[in-house]
Amino acid sequence: MIDNHVHIGWYSDGYHSPKKVWQAEQEAGIDEIVVSSTSTCAELYKPIVQEMKELVRLGGSMIHPVLWLTPRMFHTNCRWALPYLLHSGIKWDGIKLHWIAHREWYYNRKLLHNAMEVARQLEIPVLLHSGEFKECHASVFKEIIMQYDDLSFVLAHGRPLDETIDVLYSCPNTFVDTAFMPTEDVKTLCDNEFTNRILFGTDAPINMLFYKDITTADYIKGCIAKLKETLTSQQFERIMQNKLYH
């Protein structure tokens, strides 16, 4: 089983160590993880590399690092950061853009193009945070996904659902992950015949911000149990094995 939306590093509730996150995932029965570092939000580039290298030492090929890009990495006064991350010895399997944490992606298309070129050069998928703010509605990404149709995209969270469905219908190079997605929404996506393009994800350990009395392992187990209960066995097994990152 693969968890396609995981984090390590510093966040508003403290530090989530690679060891603890990987242990929680394994305890929940997860074999592989797709992971980015929340230390990126604080532009802590050296810790990002240290965290990822530690995680890869623990999990080897079961770890799929995602490079979370920020606008600052492309600014003149910080242009050393991106080369540092790209040449750190980490094999990046995807890039991530978060248009709420970094709203400049929405307003500066030249900057966005530069980020897309990184994905093109590395030939890796792009993970996009989708949500309820105007800057990150799923429909906002439709034009971009169609423009860069040589790349694969993942709409993290799949919000709003109706817009996500429209993008999936229009853009065959698009996938969606289930991180913090209501189980009923996953079922709706399956009913619309998108089972093969749904990636299981949890957003662990961000769950600790909202469910303080539940361990991360138990939270992940709960996500799996809800899907198993709601979907057909064929749908469930397909989603838990769907894989985009290599």
In DSSP terms (H or I, runs of 4 or more residues), the helix count works out at 10
Estimate the global geometry from the Cα principal axes. Answer: globular
Average of per-residue pLDDT values: 95
* Estimated radius of gyration: 17 Å
Give an overview in words:
The chain is of the alpha/beta class and 246 residues long. Helices cover 40% and strands 17% of the residues. It contains 10 helices and 9 strands. The chain has helices at 18-27, 45-59, 81-86, 104-107, 109-122, 142-147, 161-170, 183-191, 216-230, 233-241, and strands at residues 2-11, 14-16, 32-37, 63-68, 94-97, 126-129, 153-156, 174-177, 198-199. The chain has a 9-stranded mixed β-sheet with strand order 2-1-3-4-5-6-7-8-9. A hairpin with a 2-residue loop joins strand 1 (2-11) and strand 2. Helix 1 packs parallel to helix 9 and helix 8 (183-191) runs parallel beside helix 9 (216-230). The longest helix has 15 residues, at 45-59. The radius of gyration is 17 Å and the shape is globular.
Structural topology:
Elements: E1 2-11, E2 14-16, H1 18-27, E3 32-37, H2 45-59, E4 63-68, H3 81-86, E5 94-97, H4 104-107, H5 109-122, E6 126-129, H6 142-147, E7 153-156, H7 161-170, E8 174-177, H8 183-191, E9 198-199, H9 216-230, H10 233-241
Parallel strand pairs: 1-3, 3-4, 4-5, 5-6, 6-7, 7-8, 8-9
Antiparallel strand pairs: 1-2
